[in-house]
Design goal:
Oligomer: single chain
Number of strands: 36
Helix content: under 10%
Strand content: 35-45%
Number of domains: 4
Structural class: mainly beta
Radius of gyration: 35 Å
Length: 445
């Protein structure tokens, strides 16, 4: 017959572990697969026999994120790419077959929620071994990519015998899976943008020549060209960060924009249903942070960011953030009460008691039993103090107590902390022993 309590205890423990796991899983409000924020880049000398190295780019998403690599050989324009069998390391040694071609690397990012890929820009044309120019650093365009503005490219960095001379050809590229074409007459290191490039990306082809040969490299691309004096353009949506549960204060980032000053943003938080629709403004919630209240529990919030410049205003809205229920921890305590801990010698050694309690949040639910006391208890209390140390009472459990008394008290954060550090004892007082007849140190577990 004694096996039944043990079995029930095992089932209760299993239930608590399972419930705890479910609560922990519930804290994840949405899947977070890898998202590429900046594309991978290739560094090193674009020459036969030299080692090129790939960076991962930057990614967001659930950590940890692991990375895999696949190098590709492309034509001189960086298109018509083919996978290089076996080239799956982060670095790659350019071969004779790569001469006068370009190389790219595809990075695959993986975490527990999924997989995503990002492709680097192309290297410069791979130079033959020797002293002909070879690119060691990709050129970068500078200036504002806007109709009527002037952009420039540097030459990047090169190896090879000096002197090296440079010529240029600007290209316009589609914004998705870029396909680039030469801009007629745009053959200097700078270029004045016109309206025909609105919405496109721009880059420069830099051609390097010395007495041993010629090689080339394409610059990094600009962001999308915006129309002259246009309203702000959003390229990365606003985002909400921080703990998204009641009592916490998540923050908003403006995202990424072109055509707006750093102080040109306003914010409005909205409250939505649980799937992020049917949103309405939260009155007064117009800052970069938001205090989550009980009214948000089980719903979702978004932040609307309005970017304004001299031409107009543009609105962008964050992804919805579901407000999760806070995880409330439960702690269990017990104490065995005995005589001769608080009073003079001669107290009946038969006096004894038992105290059990459960703390959930700020509420402590307790039960007190006792037997063989010298008289009816006047009151029982919780006192501050470690084992063998007397201290003041801070909560009265009951007056004129009877065995089996039970109830609930509200604890402060500091009082709960004393329980967790075993710095609380239960003291039962009787008329014969007003300082306490039986006492027990409260322990966790």
């Amino acid at each position: 017959m004694r096996r039944i309590p043990l079995l029930l205890g095992f089932i209760a423990s299993a239930f608590m572990v399972t419930s705890g796991s479910a609560l922990a899983a519930g804290a994840r409000t949405a899947a977070s697969p890898p998202v590429n924020n900046s594309i991978p880049k290739i560094s090193g000398t674009a020459r036969e026999g030299h080692t090129l190295n790939a960076s991962n780019g930057t990614w967001s998403g659930l950590a940890p994120i692991t990375y895999a690599y696949q190098w590709q050989r492309c034509n001189s324009g960086g298109s018509s790419c083919a996978v290089l069998p076996g080239a799956t390391n982060q670095n790659y040694v350019a071969s004779a077959g790569d001469v006068n071609q370009t190389l790219r690397v595809q990075v695959t990012a993986t975490n527990a929620d999924g997989t995503a890929q990002a492709l680097s820009g192309p290297t410069g044309g791979i130079a033959a071994s020797g002293n002909a120019p070879a690119s060691t650093k990709q050129p970068n365009p500078s200036g504002t990519p806007q109709d009527g503005q002037t952009i420039k490219t540097d030459n990047g960095s090169w190896s090879g015998s000096n002197p090296i001379t440079f010529t240029y050809q600007w290209q316009s590229c589609t914004a998705v899976n870029p396909v680039c074409t030469n801009i007629v007459g745009a053959t200097s290191s700078s270029y004045v943008i016109n309206a025909s490039q609105d919405g496109l990306l721009l880059r420069a082809v830099v051609v390097a020549t010395n007495s041993f040969g010629t090689s080339f490299v394409t610059s990094n691309v600009t962001t999308a060209v915006i129309a002259k004096a246009s309203s702000p353009v959003d390229s990365i949506l606003p985002a909400i960060s921080g703990t998204k549960s009641v009592g916490n204060t998540p923050s908003a980032s403006a995202g990424s924009w072109t055509g707006v000053a750093a102080n040109g943003f306003t914010y409005q938080w909205t409250r939505c249903n649980s799937n992020g629709t049917a949103c309405s403004n939260v009155s007064g919630a117009t800052g970069t942070s938001y205090g989550v209240g009980l009214a948000d529990l089980g719903l979702a919030v978004r932040v609307n960011v309005t970017a304004t410049n001299s031409t107009g205003a543009t609105l962008a809205t964050s992804v919805a953030a579901v407000i999760a229920r806070p995880v409330i921890k439960t702690y269990r305590f017990s104490a065995t009460l005995r005589a001769n801990q608080e009073v003079i010698r001669g107290t009946s050694t038969r006096s004894a008691g038992h105290f059990t309690a459960t703390a959930r949040g700020k509420t402590l639910t307790w039960t007190l039993t006792f037997a063989h006391l010298s008289g009816h208890p006047t009151f029982a209390a919780l006192n501050t103090g470690g084992r063998g140390v007397n201290g003041p009472s801070f909560k009265t459990l009951c007056r004129q107590c009877v065995s089996g008394a039970h109830g609930a008290v509200t604890l402060t954060a500091s009082q709960l902390d004393r329980f967790l550090r075993n710095q609380v004892y239960v003291n039962v007082h009787t008329p014969r022993h007003p300082l306490g007849e039986i006492r027990g140190q409260v322990i966790l577990g």
